[in-house]
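May I ask for a protein sequence together with how it folds?
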Amino acid sequence: PLAMAATAETEAETDAEMREDEVLACAFGAWYPRFRSVTYKSEVIALPEPFVEYLLADGINVGAGGADDSSSDSSGWGEGGDGEGSEAGSGGVAEIDFPELEERISAAIASLGGGVLPKLNWSAPKDAQWLQPSLQCRTAREVITLLKASDFVAHDLCHSFDHCSTSRRRPDEFTLVLRRWHDLHESSEFRCFVSDSAMFAISQRNSDGFFEHLCEKEEAEALRKTIRSFFEQHIRAAFPLRRYVFDVYVCAAPKRKVRLVDFSPWGPTTDACLYDWPELKDLAVAAAAAAESEAPLEFRVVHDDSERQSKAERFHNIPVELAQVSGGQGLEDFIRKADRLLEEKRRKGDPA
């Protein structure tokens, strides 16, 4: 009877819609203080509401003052000021005019070693990487431009609580997260799924990559054991939710040091990687029905090129028209051309 009751409880838990409290618990600023010792060093900056409005305004304008021409030349992370916005020019494109915020961002970048990965409460602007060589930012202007150009960031701003029963669409405040830049290998990051406070499934995080060494039985078993141990030691009793998703980075053998990357809420707004959400719910119910010592821990990787899946951010890449006008120019020239093109499309009544 106890097993039946536990299974029924888990079924109700896995079938329930997303909850606002779970989404908020997975916001970076909510969990970082508790897990600071097992994740990458970061800085969290509260964003003034005028800046949030600026991010949601049409167009990208890097402004005139304070721009830094330093460029980012590294790739990786393997995968982590209150001014009034002004209208620039006849096109009505909001210009960056938040000097105090820019100063705070610049100071944080310096304290983190000169290179950072930016994100908001939940999402990094991975879909805006077409603007520069990588997501690594060395200046405040690079951070702001990536945020401004990202659909993923816009989703955080406008659709934070999609699939939740709450009437709210966003939290009371947003934060900018700057994570110290690390050159990480994509094959070493994994997404882990937890239900009823038990981890029951692991997936290769980069689902569009094929990494032959992950298919070796001994390597897979070593990774499963290492991640399970990290979860039991650092996550299970410390994180307040019963169901959630978390990402880890596992360094290469022999050290296999594990670092926490992020938490995400349970539900369809979180990428299920090599699973899908109905399957995850079934696996969670099966794991709950088994004795804890016998509970299976699925470990899934891409075994050949046919199993590779496209990244979501590839569907948000640079529009064809913008690629045609870029001409290999620098970031600021390219953005000005992009703004002119978008303004012409608006005048003609075409969708931007």
